[in-house]
Structures are given as C-alpha cells and as structure tokens.
TrEMBL record:
The chain crosses the membrane at residues 136-156. It comes from Ploceus nigricollis. It is a single-pass type I membrane protein. The gene is Mpzl3. Keywords: Disulfide bond, Glycoprotein, Immunoglobulin domain, Membrane, Signal, Transmembrane, Transmembrane helix. This is MPZL3 protein. PANTHER family: MYELIN P0 RELATED, MYELIN PROTEIN ZERO-LIKE PROTEIN 3. GO terms for cellular component: plasma membrane. It is found in: Membrane. It comes from the Eukaryota. Belongs to the myelin P0 protein family. Residues 22-125 form the Ig-like domain. Gene3D superfamilies: Immunoglobulins.
Length: 212
C-alpha cells in the first residue's frame, strides 16, 4: 500500500522555459493524484539561482494562494493554477536577467505526499529587435527578395510599354518630332478625317495608266 501511494502522485513540468525581460512568463505544472482533492492539498514552488545557492520558497498554496512577501520575487508571482483540474501553474511578472535559475513544483495531496521532482530551468534574455528571424527565414528573404525585385521592375517596364502602345493605337496619334520613320510626314489634316480621305481616294483609283 505504501508503494502504491508513493507512485500514485505524478507531477509534470516544462523542463526549460524561455522568457524576455519585462514580459510575463508562464511556468506550467500539472499533477495527477489517486486521492481525492481536498483542502489539505499543498503546492510549493521553490527557486535556486543559476549561480547556485540555497533553495528558497517563492510560492505556497493551501486552499488559497500565498505568494512570497519577501525577496526578489515579492509581488511578482501570479497564481494561474486550478487544483481541481490538476493544475498548479504560476506566472512571473516582469522577469529580469537575474531570475535565471531552476524552479521546482512540489505537490502534496495526503495521503499522496511522495512524488517525482520535475525541474524547470528558466532562461531570461533581452528581446533586442522587435521580432526575431530564424536562420531559415533570413536565408529565404536573402534569396527571394532580389528575385521579387527583378520581377517587379519587369512588370513596371512592361506596363509602361503597354501604355505607350495603347496611346499609339488611339485615333489621331501624332509621332514625336524625335521619332524616325520611313513613312512620309502626315499632312495637317492627319487624324480621323485625314485617314478617311486617304481611304476614299484609294477607292476611286484605277489600275489604268494615263496615256502619254
């Protein structure tokens, strides 16, 4: 019976959590107990600095949450758990670089008081840029950005040529003085009327040659 009780309470926690300075971070902890959840259930979160040293209790729960009232985590621990659902998670508000270290979630639910001891390593870093790019995303941008730029320039150039051809096709278009053409210069009556006149003249023309 003692062995069964020792193995019946299981705790799970994230082995490693990353956070950014000043941004709230969640430390997840869940548990399963064979015994019914009662007011005797206890939750304790302890912390050991990255450089080592003694463990310190930063949070205690028994019926109601009791965040620490002293030390570096004073007024910065937020209870997010729900013991009825097997959740004993907490959050750290405004994390700083000195918060780096190991956090341990401990749960006791008499008669289940023995359990595994999962540890969560918190790594707090400066965010730096407003966003971070993975190496794969950065490589993709470096490869596809020049190609996209070339395609865009080609589309712009084709659009300009299309507009020029469209303007030339309009009735009454006159060539610029700098354009070179083998065709005779149009008369002052060039335009829709001039073209109609030339067409009419070609209609009345015959293939007979004038006599000498």
């Amino acid at each position: 019976s003692g062995v069964c009780n020792a193995l019946s309470l299981e705790i799970k926690a994230s082995p490693k959590v990353r956070a950014f300075v000043g941004e709230q971070v969640l430390l997840k902890c869940s548990f399963k107990s064979s015994a019914p959840i009662t007011e005797s259930l206890l939750v304790d979160w302890t912390y050991r600095p990255l450089a080592g040293g003694q463990m310190e209790t930063i949070f205690h729960y028994q019926s109601v949450p009791h965040p620490t009232t002293a030390g570096k985590f004073k007024d910065r621990i937020l209870w997010l758990g729900n013991v009825a659902n097997g959740d004993a998670s907490i959050a750290i508000q405004s994390p700083v670089l000195s918060d780096n270290g190991t956090f341990i979630c401990s749960v006791r639910n008499p008669p289940d008081v023995y359990h595994n001891i999962p540890q969560t390593v918190l790594v707090v870093t400066e965010r730096g840029l407003a966003f971070q790019l993975s190496s794969a995303a950065l490589l993709s941008i470096l490869v596809f950005l020049p190609s996209a730029l070339v395609v865009f320039l080609l589309l712009v150039r084709m659009g300009r040529k299309f507009r020029v051809l469209k303007e030339k096709g309009k009735c009454g278009y006159k060539k610029s003085s700098i354009e070179v053409s083998d065709e005779p210069e149009p008369s002052d009556t060039a335009g829709c009327g001039g073209k109609l006149k030339e067409w009419c003249l070609s209609c009345v023309d015959t293939d007979e040659e004038d006599p000498y």
